[in-house]
Write a structure and sequence with these properties.
Length: about 120
């Protein structure tokens, strides 16, 4: 279940990279983002760490970095409202100084699980 959630979260972050994401296969979006699939795993794991225990607090931050690709990033809780947490991902793919911003939202379901939501 946790790996399914991680894959779903990674997919949603990938979609944030492109307005035309619906027209492209997931593998192409990953390739164009500059991040490897392992980078997305690190990104998702960092975000998941913010949800351990109670509701994350605004300003909470987690970082990740790939020793294999040199990609890195941070995820910050930018808002908590209506049983949802709004996240800001700042991502720096390898071999570039360009920082990309992706925003996601996770809401708590009736079972207390944090679900990635549009």
């Amino acid at each position: 279940m946790n790996s399914l959630f991680s894959l779903t979260a990674a997919g949603a972050v990938i979609i944030g990279f492109s307005v035309a994401a619906q027209a492209k296969p997931l593998s192409r979006i990953i390739a164009e983002s500059g991040l490897s699939p392992d980078d997305f795993t690190l990104l998702t794991t960092a975000a998941d760490g913010l949800f351990q225990g109670s509701t994350p607090q605004v300003g909470s931050e987690a970082t990740w970095a790939s020793t294999e690709t040199d990609a890195k990033g941070t995820v910050t809780v930018r808002d908590v409202r209506d049983n949802c947490v709004h996240l800001q991902h700042l991502i720096e793919p390898a071999n570039t100084d360009q920082i990309r911003e992706v925003r996601t939202r996770r809401c708590r379901d009736a079972g207390g699980n944090w679900i990635l939501t549009p």
